[in-house]
Amino acid sequence: MDASSQKANGTSSKIVSVSPDTLIASNAHLQKYTGPPMDPIVTPIYTSSVYRFKDIEQFGVISNNADFIFYPRMGTPNSSGVETTICSLEGGAGSVVFVSGMAAITTTFMSLLKAGDHIVAQNPVYSGVFKFINKFLPKWNVEVSWVTAGCDVTEYEKHIKPNTKLLYGETPCNPKMSILDLEAFGQLSKKYAHIVTMVDGTFASPYLQLPLKFGVDISMHSCTKYLGGHSDLMGGVVTMRTKALFEKIRENRTYYGNPLSAFDCYLLARGMKTLAVRMDRHSQNALIIAEYLQSHPLVKEVCYPGLKSHLQHNIAAKQMKSFSGMITFEINGTFEQSKVFVESTKLVNLAVSLGGVESLIEHISYMVHGPWIMSDEERKEAGLSDTLIRLSVGLENVEDIKDDLGQALQKAQTLTADDITAAEG
């Protein structure tokens, strides 16, 4: 290529005279784009693990400003972008993204707790959090008190001790869809300034629910679920109400070494662009499905906060824009019937996780809250029966979802006593 061709294509004709192996290895000697500046609509994916400095003074300026990035363990331009978006949506002082929801939760816990401290948490709770609290916190001499998910917030207050440092809850709760009163929970933050309140709102997304608005200190989400929305990334995020909490969590993420990758941040940013339209459709479909399930003879109980029969429907209506796409329901029959039901769906996928565009179903006592992570006694204490089903309602045509659930329920309903005996044998 001659100099005029290089100039027309926006590349530099100036190449330092070096040996071929140096030319191949060193970006410093490669041709670079020098054409007119471009402003891409979509943020490019920043895969570089290092950044070049003009001089050591520039490094000094950057390294002394926590908002600047010079190494991807601190974040990337991609993570800064999604954190800014989420923080704006949540109305917080700052957001921090992680490689998973559990990384977000455990980093936050370890940032706030030390040996001799005490926390109050709800039960049931996401099984990974339950395992972390039960297995790891006692090793670090952190005390735990459990309250029933969906209880009046006064139950949290009854368990507060002089060494209590964290109150933790979910709303809607995984998996029973109970509701935590965010306004009352936020009041505890004001009343007990030394205690941090933290809420996992993954089942709602920050489009439908804003815990910080009610005075809660930390809002957490698994980005793997509704925020990403396409079942193609894993991530987590916490958003803090105060700058002090934000700076503490952000610093600890750097030294724990668990930020979200640039590529996953790109996927997350892409997914969030449709969050509003997706959550509206999830909510519309889920209400129709919940009403259908409620009328079916093989369904004993439906837990969906959008139903007026839900014990905390009024609280949910006060703090949620709509009621999301998660439904939990109990089969009015045997374990074997519930097993046949989840294994007989064709459109609805038998899989863990939730919040994607496709509908997912799982058997609670055998899958995410199953024997691999919770004992029979622990499930019994959490009120999780052997016929409890969790459904993540997707964006498919709602009649197709209904038809698929209907045929699967029919198969389970017509299961004979001999069939059950043979299966158990």
Strand content: 5-15%
Structural class: alpha/beta
* Count of helical stretches: 17
**Total strand segments:** 12
Question: Low-confidence spans: pLDDT under 50, at least 5 residues?
Answer: 1-14
Helix fraction by DSSP (H/I, runs of at least 4): 25-40%
- The oligomeric state is single chain
Strand order of the largest sheet: 1-7-6-5-4-2-3
**Taking all residues together, what is the mean pLDDT?**
92
Summarize the structure in short.
40% of the residues lie in helices and 14% in strands.
Describe this structure in words.
It is a single chain. With 425 residues, this protein is an alpha/beta fold. It has helices at residues 3-8, 20-25, 56-63, 77-90, 101-112, 127-135, 154-158, 182-191, 223-227, 243-256, 262-272, 275-294, 313-319, 335-344, 376-382, 398-413, 417-424, and strands at residues 94-98, 118-123, 143-148, 164-170, 196-200, 218-222, 236-240, 299-303, 326-331, 349-350, 360-363, 388-392. It is built from 17 helices and twelve strands. The model is unreliable at 1-14 (pLDDT under 50).
Which key phrases capture this entry?
425 residues; seven-stranded mixed β-sheet; globular; disordered N terminus
Task: Detail the topology: elements first, then pairings.
Elements: H1 3-8, H2 20-25, H3 56-63, H4 77-90, E1 94-98, H5 101-112, E2 118-123, H6 127-135, E3 143-148, H7 154-158, E4 164-170, H8 182-191, E5 196-200, E6 218-222, H9 223-227, E7 236-240, H10 243-256, H11 262-272, H12 275-294, E8 299-303, H13 313-319, E9 326-331, H14 335-344, E10 349-350, E11 360-363, H15 376-382, E12 388-392, H16 398-413, H17 417-424
Parallel strand pairs: 2-3, 2-4, 4-5, 5-6, 10-11
Antiparallel strand pairs: 1-7, 6-7, 8-9, 9-12, 11-12
Helix pairs in contact: 4-11, 14-16
